[in-house]
Amino acid sequence: MLRIQSFADGKFATFAFSGRLADSALFEIQELLNFQVEVRQVTLDLEELRLVDREAVRFLAACEARGIKLKNCPPYIREWIGTGSGTGYEP
Nearest Cα to 67, choosing from 29, 85, 40? Predict the structure, then answer.
């Protein structure tokens, strides 16, 4: 199960994820991000993220490529993004 907490401060928004990030939640997260048109910087805080699937890694890589900051990204996720496991996601 995934829990998302959001924090906004003017032109900055942070979404903190905890639990498991799976492809079943990606559409909802993409919709949340799409509503951030007034925000200059979006950050995804991954400190409490415990498990991800392949589509989630691809999604996170695509977010980072769009300029979304990945904060507290676990090393195993960072490695998967770096090895190309995180390419090819189309929202």
Answer: 40
